[in-house]
Amino acid sequence: MAIPGEAIAWAEPLDPADYKEYVADWAAVMAGNGDATIASAVVALSAEAVAAGVEIDEVTNPPSNDGAAVTIWFRVNAANQLDAGFDGTGATFGVEITVTDSDGRTLQRTWKLTVRQR
Questions:
Q1: 110 in a domain, yes or no?
Q2: What's the pLDDT tens digit per position in 85-98?
Q3: Are 26 and 8 contacting, i.e. CB atoms less than 8 angstroms apart?
Q4: Which Pfam families does this entry report, sorted A to Z (predicted)?
Q5: How far is 66 from 64, CA to CA, in rounded Å?
Q6: How far is residue 79 CA from its own chain's centroid?
Q7: Exposure string (b/e) for 42-59, b if CB count within 10 Å is 16 or more?
């Protein structure tokens, strides 16, 4: 997946050994749609992220939303944590988030997740 130029970057990179949550804030988008709220969300990793061993926790902490933001827990598969691609500036991957709002709209945005040894 090519990462769109308007993709939103999470400020904090994910260390390959980390297991942590990231929040995708949709508040401005929802406010622009008459203060609708997120009814549901689907999160998809780019093929490149999957090949690099990046995973979304779908079991213990599956993606969730509070009406204005989507929370996603990421980790890197243990077999990939020392891959050279995560050295230096690391690797940046696309994360597509598709939400359906309380008014029935379907909206999709891409966030950028950087994985880097720290």
A1: yes
A2: 999 999 999 999 99
A3: no
A4: Gp77
A5: 7
A6: 21
A7: ebbbbebbeebbbbbeee
Domain with 22 in it: 8-115
C-alpha span between 101 and 20 (Å, rounded): 26
Q: Which two tokens stand for residue 19?
A: 């297991």
Q: Which residue has the tokens 């949550």?
A: 21
CATH number of the domain residue 34 falls in: 2.60.40
pLDDT score of 84: 97
pLDDT, tens digit, 9 for 90 and up, residues 55-82: 999 999 999 999 999 999 999 999 999 9
